[in-house]
């Protein structure tokens, strides 16, 4: 058991380091190419920082731990929105007012896909095509269409004079490799911890694994916050959340059948975790539309409310013994 905790901690540390490296390389690529921070965040940063979720979810399916697999995907979404609220609170500026309204599109897409996941859980995974659910296949296709739509919404600018991409692409690749390897080790360690402690897989997936696999988002968000790259930060969070939902398709592949129909006793707690994610996303969408700014003193109210709502939601679920 001690060994599993050490592996878990080392994997989490490696993921945190890789996320910081990724933030720096992504910001350099955005400056050199003229692509918008929101687009770079939504595609490059979001996909790479979501690799731990993808690896953990697929590994959870491969080792017959569906509660860990799905709990990681849904729990990470709620945790990421807590990160967004915390970063906005720490920014000291009118955070949501400085964000592009185009983030609403990816946020709405996440709400829709999460609702589809809830429907699939309710119908026992739905009809399948070979190893995958037709519902999860539909989720993948919707994501690809959303990526195109998000690209059409973004407006780039000419690249910054004198700035080249340099080693940034190589750094992004190194980050991805470290994240994948550490993500596999982390998931195996989490299953050992769950079996050794008797804690339910949904708890391990929704809290412990979700927290650890969201460390790249934490690191990338802190890096973007220091650079004042607020759209890069938000693009990473909203893009990661949409991609996280898509990981259930790949979990079907490793599990061998629709994983959303195999949750058993974990299903109800995961439904509530998904509901928390939808509520937090709706709150963030409202803040993006209202763009109310901040008070003369103290943190931005919308960001603080988002962060406190996340903490309150987790507290309520924990108090009810559901996570």
Structure in words:
The structure is a single chain. By secondary structure, this protein is mainly alpha-helical. The protein has one domain (2-154, 168-319): NCX, central ion-binding region (A middle domain of Talin 1), CATH 1.20.1420.30. The chain has 12 helices and 2 strands, in the order αααααββααααααα. It has helices at residues 2-33, 37-49, 51-62, 66-91, 103-122, 134-153, 168-197, 201-213, 215-227, 230-255, 267-290, 301-319; strands spanning 128-129, 132-133. Helix 1 (2-33) packs parallel to helix 9 and helix 3 packs antiparallel against helix 4. The model has no long low-confidence stretch (mean pLDDT 80).
Please report the total strand number as a whole number. Answer: 2
In helices, the fraction of residues equals over 70%
What is the C-alpha radius of gyration, as a whole number of Å? 19 Å
When the domains are counted, the total is 1
Q: Architecture in CATH? A: Up-down Bundle
The CATH C-level class name: Mainly Alpha
What fold name goes in the CATH topology slot?
A: A middle domain of Talin 1
- Total helices: the number is 12
Give the biggest beta sheet: 2 strands, antiparallel
Low-confidence stretches: none
Strand arrangement in the largest pleated sheet:
1-2
